[in-house]
Amino acid sequence: MPRSNRRRPEPPDDSLDRLLNGWKRTETRRGASWTVQPVSASQAQKTYVCPGCGRDVTPGTAHLVAWRADGVMGDAADLAARRHWHSACWRIA
Ligand SMILES: [Zn+2]
Fold first, then answer.
1. Which residues have CB less than 5 Å away from ligand 1 (the ion)?
2. Smallest Cα–Cα separation from 27: which of 82, 63, 69, 78?
3. What DSSP designation does 75 have?
4. 3 CA to middle of ligand 1, Å?
5. E strands, 11-90, where?
6. pLDDT in tens, 10-65
7. Pairing of strands 56-57, 48-49
């Protein structure tokens, strides 16, 4: 498929560079290490499904994005599998 047929371009603020270079922290959850990075309300421009509650993380909602930090699948695969969480859902997960 030609890339020009994509419905909309990726927003630049969701780039891997931002994720890799932005401020983030490491947390341990369920026996695994996770890289956690906050997403501000102005950066939240798409709708995601929160794995904690199964409901939408709507645009304009400050939340966080998390991915495995232990590198089992390699950094690129871990990043591709990142999930967007409501901040409260991540805290109680
Ligand atoms: Zn949630």
1. 50, 52-53, 86, 89
2. 69
3. H
4. 32
5. 25-29, 32-39, 48-49, 56-57, 63-68, 83-85
6. 555 556 666 666 678 899 987 889 999 999 999 999 999 999 999 999 999 999 99
7. antiparallel
Alpha carbon distance 45, 11 (integer Å):
8
Which of 86, 72, 76 shows the shortest CA–CA distance to 17? 76
The model's pTM is 0.72
58 dihedral zone (left: phi>0; alpha: psi -120 to 50; beta): beta
* CA 84 – CA 51 distance, rounded (Å): 8
For residue 43, which of 67, 19, 27 has the smallest C-alpha distance?
19
To which H or E segment does residue 79 belong?
helix 75-80
Residues in the chain: 93
**What's the 54 CA to ligand 1 centre distance in angstroms?**
6
Dihedrals phi, psi of 39, to nearest 5 degrees: -120, 125
Cα–Cα distance measured from residue 80 to residue 62, given in angstroms and rounded to the nearest whole number: 20
